[in-house]
Amino acid sequence: MRTRKMLDYPPTMAQATHSHALSTAILQLLRPLVRILLRNNRSHRTFADLAKQVYVDVANAEFGIHGKQQTVSRIAILTGLTRKDVQRLLKLLATSQSMTSVSAEEYHRGSRVITGWLRDPKYGDGRGHPRPLAMEGGGASFSALVHSYSGDMPVRAVLDELLRVGAVKQLKDGRICLISRGYIPQKSSVEKLQVLGADTADLISTLDHNIYLKPTKPRFQRKVMYDNVPREAAKEFRTVVAAEGQEFLEKLDRWLAHHDRDVNPAAKGTGRVRVGLGVFQFEEQESPGDSYREDPSS
């Protein structure tokens, strides 16, 4: 019997163009990530090991065949890893994901307490001017605030968390004072890195949704940028963004809180969806003439 030889056809022009565009985009988004890795003395091997974990996790969770249970063999085919590696990483992921979910929940609850403090007229004027709060007592206290916006979290644990990230301070008379208008860690690099993971993942997920799912109503994703702005204007822009951006986010926070059933049990509707908007300012010094120079000692 004559066997038929499979032919490996070269990619079409459209496929080659798409592949090049994807490679270019990945190189761009990896640059700031690799910069962070190098600043933290993390080698390429560390990055490669983490990338393997994510390949296995995503292939297992999102690229199965409808109606069939995902298998180690299929994950190995999709990712290019060995079956042995896949089995090892699946066991590792079962442990690490529970830790990640705990960190994400702490971030979410801390943020809710701060935004409730800013917008709820019980704890301020309802327009972004919060009052210092007594720890306990009748009426508007820090304890009441935590119970209203952080569910069943212990009050002391929430206070310790907000103190650690620099969001609040305790006055001499014992009252708690809000000093940051958002859950933005001021002290610990650990909490800042948690924000890095959560916020960047949301942005890339939105881009993936708009590019590949081709929705009739894509998610909102825009930016404004000019590349020949004087340093003085760039400094002024930071002030404008901080003021205008914060005001806009607090307006959206009030709208979302009205529809969130954890904050407003009377909110109507079905299902459970996580929605939000992220705003960030970027800035890069343009330095003509800066280029790689080979180390003369090498």
- Biggest pleated sheet: 2 strands, antiparallel
Q: How far apart are the first and last residues' alpha carbons, in Å?
A: 61 Å
Helix-strand topology string: HHHHHHEEHH
* Structural classification: mainly alpha
CATH topology of the largest domain: Arc Repressor Mutant, subunit A
Biggest sheet: strand arrangement: 1-2
Rounded average pLDDT: 83
Q: Which word captures the global form?
A: globular
The proportion of residues in beta strands is under 5%
Based on CA atoms alone, the radius of gyration comes out at: 24 Å
CATH architecture field of the largest domain: Orthogonal Bundle
DSSP helix count? 8
Low-pLDDT runs: 289-294
The figure for the number of domains is 4
Oligomer: single chain
Q: Percent helix among the residues?
A: 40-55%
Broad CATH class of the largest domain = Mainly Alpha
Task: Please write out the topology.
Blueprint: H1 13-39, H2 44-62, H3 72-79, H4 83-119, H5 142-149, H6 155-164, E1 168-170, E2 176-178, H7 189-212, H8 231-259
Word description of this protein:
With 298 residues, the chain is mainly α. It has four domains: 24-81, no CATH class; 101-178, Arc Repressor Mutant, subunit A; 188-220; 223-268, no CATH class. 54% of the residues lie in helices and 2% in strands. A hairpin with a 5-residue loop joins β1 (168-170) and β2. α2 (44-62) packs across α4 (83-119). It starts with 12 loop residues before the first helix and ends in a 39-residue tail after the last helix.
